[in-house]
Structures are given as C-alpha cells and as structure tokens.
Sequence to fold (483 residues):
Amino acid sequence: MPTFSDFPAIIVILLVFSALSFYIVLSVYMTLKNKQQYALKINTLKHSYEQILLKSQLEIQEETLRGVSQEIHDNIGQVLSLVKLQLGSAPADASEADKQEIIEQSRQLVGKAITDLRALSKSLHPDRVNELGLLENIRHELERLEKTKMYHTRFRINGSPQTIPIETQTILFRMTQESISNIIKHAGADTVEITMDYEPQQLYLSILDNGIGINHLDHNSPQTGIGLRNMKSRSAAIGATFSIETAVEKGTLVKISMPLGQVVGSL
Amino acid sequence: MQLNLSNYAEIFAAIVCTFCVFFKPSVTNRWFIGFLVLTLFVEFSAKLLYNNGAIKTSMYNIFGMVEVVFYLCYFRIFFKTKKEARLFQSIILFFLFFGIINFFFFQGAREYNHYTSLLGDAILSMFCLRIFYDILNDRVQGDSTKTLLIIVSGLFLYYCITLITDSFFYLLYIDGEFFKTLYTFVNGYLNLLLYGCFALAFASEAFNNNSRNLSS
Fold:
C-alpha cells in the first residue's frame, strides 16, 4: 500500500530526472559547439598549409627562372657571343686549315651551348619536384653551385630513402633552396654539405656550410627574423622541427627533423 | 475563459509559426502550422468543455496519440533510408494499435489513458536520444539540423520529465489534489519550455540566412 512517503520520492525523482535531461541536452550542445570549433581550427590549419605549399611552389618556380636567367646570361650567352666573335674575326684571306680550325672550335662551342640549353630546359619543367623528386632536385641545386666553381659541395644519403608525400617534398626542397640561397648571399662560404639521414621513423635533413655564421645581432635583424620565421612556419606545416646551430666564423648547420609515415595536409 | 501560461506559450508558438510560413516557408514551418492550429483548437475546446469531463478526457486521449504520431512523422523526414522508414512505420503502427486498444478496451475513453501516454513518452524520449546521437555523428541530412536540434531538445526535456509524472499516475488515486497540483505545475512549465523551443526553432530557420527549403 503506497504511503505518504511516496510524495517526496516523486519530487526527488522528478528533480533528478530533470537535471539528467538538462545535462544530456547541454552535453549535446557543448559537443556540437566543440565539433564546430575543431572543424574551424582544422580548416584554418588546412588553409594555412595550402598557402605555405602554394607559396613554396611559386618560390621554387621563381628561383628556377632566376637560375635559368643567370645560366643563360653567364654561360650560354657568353658561349654564343664567343662563337659570334670567332666567326666574325676570321680574316678573309685565312688559309683553309685556319678556317677549318675556327669552324671546328665554333662547332664545339655551339655544341656546348646546345647541351647547356637542353639541361636548362629540363629544369624549366613546371612540376620538377613531382617529376624528379626531392633527392634529384637537391642534387641538381648542388650541381649548379659546383658549376660556379666557387663552392665545393657534397650530398650524402644515409639509410634507405622512404616515400614522402609530394607536398612535403616540395616544402622540404623549398627550405633547402632557401638555405642554399642564404649561404650564397650571406655566408661567404666555399663548402656546402647536405646530408639526409633516413631512420625508420624519422628523417634528418642538414645543411652545413663553413661560412661566417650568424651572430647574435643578425639573429634579431628583421631580414633574418622573417627568414627564420618562414622556415619555422614551413617546418610546422609539415610537422617537422627546425633548428640552427651557428657561431661566428664557425659556419652554420641548419637541421630539419621530420617524423616519417604521418600524413600532413590532408586534415 | 481563463488562459494559463502554457496556453499563452502555444498561442505564441502558433503566431511565430504563421509569421514564418508567410515570411520564409520551410518544411518545418509547413509541418508545424497545422499541428499548432490543432493544438490550439483542442486546448480551447477543452476550456469550453470544462463542465464535460468525459468528452474533454476523450479529446485529450486522442490528441495525445496524434501528438506522438505527428512528432514521429516529423522525425521521419530527416531519415531517408528504407530501413529507417520501415522502423518508423512499425513504431507508429504499434503505438496506434496499442493506443486504440487501450482507448476502447482497457482504460477506456472516459479515463485518462496514461498507459498510452507512458508508452508515447518512452518512445519519443528514445527517438530524441537517437536523433541527438545522429546529429553528433553528422548522420542527419538536410540543412535544418539546427532547427531539428532545438525542437528535439524541447521534446526530449518535455517527454523525459512527463515520463516520470505519468509513471507516478497512481498517486492521483491516493492524494488527487497533491498530484493534480504537481502534474499541472510540471506540465505547465514543460509546455512553456516545449512551445518556447518550437518558436525559437521556427524563428531560427526563418531568419537564418544559410537555411534552404528541404525537399519533402
């Protein structure tokens, strides 16, 4: 037989159930709100990553065109000018043998110009990172440095190269290109060494020069600040860490360390 | 005729819905306008029939079934797979069968069919939880997910708490006055909450720039 004590019980149960129901509804709203914020954050990161990737691709193209322009001006242009000079300077009364020699020298120079032009046309490929891969592109950059006869370069690969997503390769190549560009502009070095260490879960890319180093003041200069920030933001975009070890007159070591096997960019 | 708080809430929701139907018709607004008109008709008829308890109770019993079926049919439009369509149809048919049998053979027309009401409360509470789960897992189709969420939140709170009051319906026979006071108090504020959520949902859908009409 129900007693009067049932009445407080119903009120307690009602209150508890009401609280539970409100809690469930509130939890649903909070979860949805968190999901929305997370999705927004992901979109922002994805947008930021895509911007960095696009910027890197554009800078690679700019750098390539700059290199091509320089190559045409310094090498091919000079060679063809020399051919023109040679052919123009041959006296009208020169012997047949002399004429043949001039023609042969000119032919060799034109052949060299053709070879250089062919090599250049390959580097003008719009998607060279995709086509050649990171290692070949780095090798190509170091060959360009060697050709100037102002640098000794060395490229070492330790461990077994693993597959890296093409977007990550583009960003890594751009960072390498930028480091090399900084060495040419500021370091006053004559040796550049690039090492790629492939470990099972990690890739270490290091760029070492024997230049003047970056002193404390330079670290804080606007140009250096922007450059370092760019490198850091590019590293962050691919989940890598970036560090510089340097001392005055003792060269600079740029180290990029990236975990392998993760998919970045497809957030 | 004296109107109480829940009556005013119903009138307010009906006005907002009517305004939204003319300003920015959408599936939700078109669905609810007829139901709200019926609600107002039932409530005002009940007020007018205050001396005739038997007819009033019968009206509430039938309207209670209509309410549950209406909400289930509204939820149905957000689930388009055949499997889910069959589930909704089965639940509706089972509920109607139970309600009709209870109305004619068990509790009868003159007594409040709280067994039917209890079953309807349980079914709707469970479906509301199911819809929360689907919304959280992005499985609800269409652009009116926000509207659905507000409506389902109101329905869940209403039917979850009404489930308790209907479970303790036997107390009406022990201390009718206390239970009636408690039931009226709880039901009044739950109605205010429910119809307030409806009005908010209609307004949200009508004034949301990104909302589009659902294909019905």
Observations:
- Chain B touches chain A at residues 129, 132, 135-136, 149, 153, 156-157, 160-161, 163-165, 168, 170-171, 174-175, 178, 182, 186 (CB under 8 Å).
